[in-house]
Amino acid sequence: MEDHFGILVRFTLKDGAEEAFDKLVAETVEEIRAHEPDTLIYTCHTVEEHPQQRIFYELYRNRTTFNAHEAQPHIARFLADREQYLLSYEVDFLALTTGKGVPMTGEGS
């Protein structure tokens, strides 16, 4: 069994793009909820001191699940449409070592 696979993304938005970007994210999350049961966590956070930043935390059952997520039409739309709102973004790929809240491989997952 493969280990859980995560991503941390920091987006910096253009001035005035916050509301439109957040709407796009909300629409995308609805599709993820409806069509991706193995996407365990897909969250978008605002940053208190930096209103133009958004941090995404994503956790997938495994790398295969992430690859399936990336192939979804709603993700293709998100990736294309987000560009108009962004100044920059940074992506970190994460290998889950330990934690609370998600069963670990071999612990009932």
Question: What does this protein look like?
Answer:
By secondary structure, the chain is of the alpha+beta class. It has one domain (5-95): 2-Layer Sandwich (Alpha-Beta Plaits). The chain is 33% helix and 36% strand. The chain has 3 helices and 4 strands; from the N terminus they run E-H-E-E-H-H-E. It has helices at 18-35, 63-70, 73-82, and strands at 5-13, 39-47, 50-60, 86-95. A 4-stranded antiparallel β-sheet has the order 2-3-1-4. Strand 2 (39-47) and strand 3 form a beta hairpin. The longest helix is centred in the first third of the chain and has 18 residues, at 18-35. It is globular. Mean pLDDT is 91; it is low at 104-109.
Q: SSE order in H/E notation?
A: EHEEHHE
Between the first and last Cα atoms, what is the distance in angstroms? 10 Å
Mean pLDDT: 91
Query: What strand line-up does the widest sheet have?
Result: 2-3-1-4
Number of helices: 3
> Main β-sheet, in a few words?
4 strands, antiparallel
Beta-sheet strand percentage?
A: 35-45%
CATH architecture identity: 2-Layer Sandwich
Structural class: alpha+beta
At the first level of CATH, the class is Alpha Beta
Features:
single chain, 109 residues, Alpha-Beta Plaits, 3 helices, 33% helix, disordered C terminus
In short:
This protein has three helices and four strands; from the N terminus they run E-H-E-E-H-H-E. The protein has helices spanning 18-35, 63-70, 73-82; strands spanning 5-13, 39-47, 50-60, 86-95. The longest helix has 18 residues, at 18-35.
